[in-house]
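sry for the spam today, last one i promise. struct tokens for design, 432 residues
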């Protein structure tokens, strides 16, 4: 990027007679430079990107460009430096928070859900790939941001192919387990290097097949990065008896978000390991306390007599508590707090996300959903999923810097200039 430019034309590196296509191509080249800098973890100054977007916005609009050209001779030099107070005030006025919104209804999704279950059973599971496409399309298309919905473009055959690959791998591992411990160990070691490869394929498939306003997301994580996260940090979590699980969780979230792009702009997640550890402290203490109580009660029961009967009574209460408490309290607690921590530390170019999920409210929502599912023998599941999607969306915002329309239009022009990654369409999806 140029450190100093006299005007918008010099900033984009074009002449004053450049056509609209040349303006778009120049903007795409500059965005590609920004993308390379982000990939190298060398984020450019925010004001540089602001100046570049302002130049593209002006020169791509015929009326704005005409007015700019008319006053070009009298205009002061354009410097990519910290914005003047007046400009900063204008940007602050333009900045706003856009709320996500989920507009789906439980009864509407119930009809999709019940048909999916019926056809999946009838076809012995084959239809599950088509069922996933219908489910994902429903939830994507009903998630709104600034009046526009997302979309899902996954192909059922690609999903079915991925599931068959996963089934063959799991089936082979199961068969090896029945042969001998040695065969199982060899099969497991052979499977370990495949997990990062399958994960990269799945993340790439899901990102590419998700779009907003017609512009697709993309995922650029490498096998080496995935191996480090899944095998390296995964093994670290296991050998430390899950004490290092927050480290693994943080690296996994950063791996996914930092390698995901909307158009040519990458997400940037700056969540800290300390923030994740603070989330898992409370659930960890609760689980340890429950296990300690079970050990203590078991020791009391070994003594027999009245103490043994009392211990048996306590055990009857503790075991269901150990099974139910994580699902209805600890899981939503971790989900709400980790969602807030990760998304509130994530940005997309100059735009920043903020998640403000009330922890108590989310736990209450989960409890009601579980009660509804149990009382209706599972028929409440569609309403439960819609309630969760709506609650998450209404507490997620995007602090937009400038115009979201201009940002999307600029990214679309850059993607067109750089070429679409059509090869992503042939990746596997092993998700359920």
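last one done:
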């Amino acid at each position: 990027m140029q450190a100093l430019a006299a005007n918008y034309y010099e900033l984009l590196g074009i002449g004053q007679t450049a056509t609209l296509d040349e303006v778009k191509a120049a903007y795409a080249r500059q965005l590609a430079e920004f993308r390379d800098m982000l990939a190298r973890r060398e984020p450019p100054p925010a004001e540089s990107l602001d100046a570049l977007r302002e130049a593209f916005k002006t020169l791509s609009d015929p009326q704005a460009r005409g007015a700019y050209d008319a006053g070009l001779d009298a205009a002061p030099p354009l410097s990519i430096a910290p914005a003047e107070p007046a400009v900063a005030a204008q940007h602050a006025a333009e900045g706003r928070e856009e709320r996500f919104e989920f507009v789906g209804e439980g009864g509407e999704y119930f009809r999709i859900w019940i048909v999916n279950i019926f056809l999946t059973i009838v076809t012995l599971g084959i239809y599950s790939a088509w069922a996933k496409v219908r489910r994902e399309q429903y939830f994507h298309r009903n998630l709104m941001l600034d009046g526009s919905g997302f979309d899902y473009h996954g192909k059922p055959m690609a999903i079915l192919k991925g599931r068959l690959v996963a089934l063959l791998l799991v089936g082979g591992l199961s068969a090896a387990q029945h042969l001998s411990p040695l065969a199982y160990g060899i099969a497991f070691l052979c499977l370990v290097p495949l997990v990062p490869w399958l994960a990269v394929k799945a993340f790439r498939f899901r990102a590419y097949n998700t779009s907003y306003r017609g512009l697709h997301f993309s995922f650029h994580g490498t096998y080496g990065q995935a191996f480090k996260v899944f095998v390296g940090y995964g093994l670290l979590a296991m050998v430390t008896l899950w004490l290092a699980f927050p480290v693994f969780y943080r690296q996994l979230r950063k791996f996914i978000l930092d390698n995901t792009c909307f158009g040519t702009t990458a997400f940037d997640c700056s969540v800290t390991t300390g923030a994740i550890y603070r989330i898992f402290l409370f659930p960890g203490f609760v689980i340890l306390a429950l296990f300690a109580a079970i050990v203590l009660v078991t020791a009391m029961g070994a003594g027999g007599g009245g103490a043994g009967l009392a211990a048996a009574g306590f055990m009857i209460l503790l075991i269901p508590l150990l099974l139910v408490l994580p699902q209805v309290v600890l899981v939503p607690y971790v989900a709400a707090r980790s969602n807030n921590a990760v998304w509130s530390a994530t940005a997309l170019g100059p735009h920043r996300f903020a998640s403000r999920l009330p922890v108590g409210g989310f736990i209450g929502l989960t409890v009601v959903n579980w009660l509804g599912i149990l009382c209706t023998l599972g028929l409440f599941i569609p309403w439960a999923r819609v309630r969760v999607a709506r609650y998450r969306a209404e507490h997620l915002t995007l602090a937009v810097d400038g115009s979201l329309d201009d940002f999307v239009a600029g990214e679309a022009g850059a993607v067109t200039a750089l070429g679409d990654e059509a090869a992503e369409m042939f990746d596997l999806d092993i998700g359920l």
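The CA atoms of residues 309 and 335 lie 38 Å apart. ok im logging off now
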